[in-house]
Write a structure and sequence with these properties.
97 residues, mainly alpha, elongated, single chain, 2 strands
Length: 97
């Protein structure tokens, strides 16, 4: 089994079998909390009918929302240019926060 212990505030890679433990609170992190770590607005979503195992699988198979946004941005930029091999002018991108 893979184990990761972090003290820097980051979380390890999430997989479908990830069970995370919060040592400060002395408990496992609930799968809904893991979904929130992935960037999902859990208060706006309806997970009724899904058990903890389902939620762990959802979180483990998901990509963080900001990663999806970055990938889509690049894909749209490339599609508007005609492909990666063609030169194209792109607008200035916003600076990282």
């Amino acid at each position: 089994a893979r184990r990761a212990f972090r003290r820097d505030g980051s979380i390890p890679t999430l997989t479908t079998r990830s069970i995370l433990f919060d040592f400060e609170r002395g408990r496992q992190i609930h799968p809904l909390e893991v979904m929130a770590m992935q960037g999902f607005a859990i208060e706006d979503l309806d997970f009724s009918g899904n058990d903890a195992n389902d939620l762990r699988h959802f979180a483990g198979n998901a990509m963080h929302v900001s990663v999806v946004g970055a990938v889509l941005t690049v894909a749209l930029m490339l599609s508007s240019c005609g492909g990666a091999s063609e030169a194209c002018s792109t607008p200035d991108l916003p600076a990282n926060r």
